[in-house]
Design brief:
The protein is an alpha/beta fold. Helix content is 44%, strand content 10%.
């Protein structure tokens, strides 16, 4: 973003990479896949690079309101500097907090989850997937994309564009079970109980008989992958992010 502004250019979109996209080795692959798609489509976008920090979502979910507001206000100032109006996120947690909570602090933007963008581009004919995926696919709804923001149809439309159909889990859409990592649960030890949430959720996925579990959230990807390892299924069943499915379909 700084380089483009120095040349007098203003990109249409800020692509918010997020902590997972920047630091988690598995989710870096998702960030790369999505940037390949944006570049392939000649989209006008930029990233903040070293100027990007956390949105403050984990701090707020864990109860540290002061840290959240410090991080949010810092981001809002950076956005003002670069005249940011449209933000694309690959993380539903970033999407939710930018869309629903930053306005309280004066940060008002058009916030787009990448599945919404891809679904729109496919619907408008600007992107034409090849329907190469022949594996049976099921999709896990992230809480902060589904129940929190009612984004159910777009991710499914994108998956159908590459796979043709989806085999739904018994608990899906507004009834979908959390992966077990939301609400800052990702960063704390499991509480006492009979079974961890991610194990319960991976059992839902395994019941479908699908060989590909599609996700669209870094936390969900971590937990679904852990579940597959727990069940010793990581060799026969793959967990791909929707962005990766599109990138593979387009040979990017």
């Amino acid at each position: 973003m700084a380089d483009l502004f120095a040349r007098g250019e203003k990109p249409e979109y800020l692509f918010w990479v997020g902590c997972a996209g920047a630091f988690d080795d598995r989710y870096k692959k998702v960030a790369r896949a999505f940037t390949k798609i944006l570049t392939h489509l000649n989209m006008s976008y930029a990233v903040l690079g070293k100027e990007e920090t956390c949105t403050g979502d984990p701090a707020r979910r864990a109860g540290n309101e002061m840290l959240y507001q410090m991080q949010a206000l810092q981001n809002i100032e950076v956005f003002k500097m670069y005249e940011v109006q449209k933000i694309i996120t690959i993380c539903p947690h970033c999407f939710n907090i930018f869309k629903n909570e930053y306005p309280d602090l004066g940060g008002n933007y058009e916030v787009i989850h990448y599945t919404q963008l891809l679904a729109t581009l496919i619907h408008e004919g600007k992107m034409k997937p090849n329907k190469k995926l022949t594996d049976k696919v099921t999709y896990h709804d992230p809480c902060y994309l589904g129940r929190a923001n009612h984004v159910y149809d777009e991710p499914r439309a994108v998956i159908r564009s590459v796979a043709g159909s989806i085999t739904e889990m018994k608990r899906n859409k507004s009834f979908a079970l959390c992966c077990g990592a939301g609400g800052a649960q990702m960063f704390k030890e499991a509480e006492k109980g009979n079974k961890e949430v991610f194990i319960e959720r991976i059992e839902d996925a395994l019941e479908t008989g699908a060989s590909v579990i599609a996700t669209s959230c870094p936390f969900c990807m971590t937990m679904i992958t852990d579940g597959l390892k727990y069940k010793n299924k990581e060799e026969e069943i793959k967990n791909y992010d929707i962005a990766e499915l599109i990138a593979m379909d387009l040979d990017l």
